[in-house]
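Quick one, tokens below:
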């Protein structure tokens, strides 16, 4: 498994976020039933993403993040555009589902049928097992996605 950009978002996500900078969202997928990256990257909506055996986590203290502010930065010197958001924290997350992937999406209408998956990020082994403490998604200085 690896981090990737969904096929439906390639070449589009930076422009879409620039046009609607508070349309970002994030959800977490659980390990149990997780489909392969080859299957996941062809999904075109969040409803589609969750229609197979792949499911969102259900731990207490977890809630999907929506309305997230996104920053789009064009780096002329390095010839790419970086898309980033603030780190996201879930407080006092109970045991239960093991967290496998963080999914970012563009919300184009408020339902899973109109939310477009953008990027998938593996959660490192040992980092995705909630036990009552806080869980934080940290983005490095490179943001969560880059368009080249």
């Amino acid at each position: 498994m690896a981090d990737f950009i969904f096929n439906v978002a390639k070449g589009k996500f930076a422009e879409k976020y620039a046009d609607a900078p508070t349309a970002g969202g994030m959800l977490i997928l659980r390990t149990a039933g997780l489909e392969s990256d080859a299957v996941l990257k062809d999904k075109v909506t969040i409803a589609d993403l969750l229609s197979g055996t792949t499911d969102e986590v259900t731990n207490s203290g977890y809630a999907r993040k929506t309305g997230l502010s996104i920053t789009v930065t064009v780096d002329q010197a390095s010839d790419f555009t970086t898309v980033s958001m603030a780190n996201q924290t879930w407080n006092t997350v109970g045991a239960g589902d093991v967290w496998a992937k963080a999914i970012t999406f563009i919300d184009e209408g408020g339902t899973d049928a109109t939310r477009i998956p953008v990027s998938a990020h593996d959660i490192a082994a040992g980092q995705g097992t909630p036990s009552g403490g806080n869980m934080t998604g940290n983005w490095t200085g490179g943001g969560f996605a880059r368009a080249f």
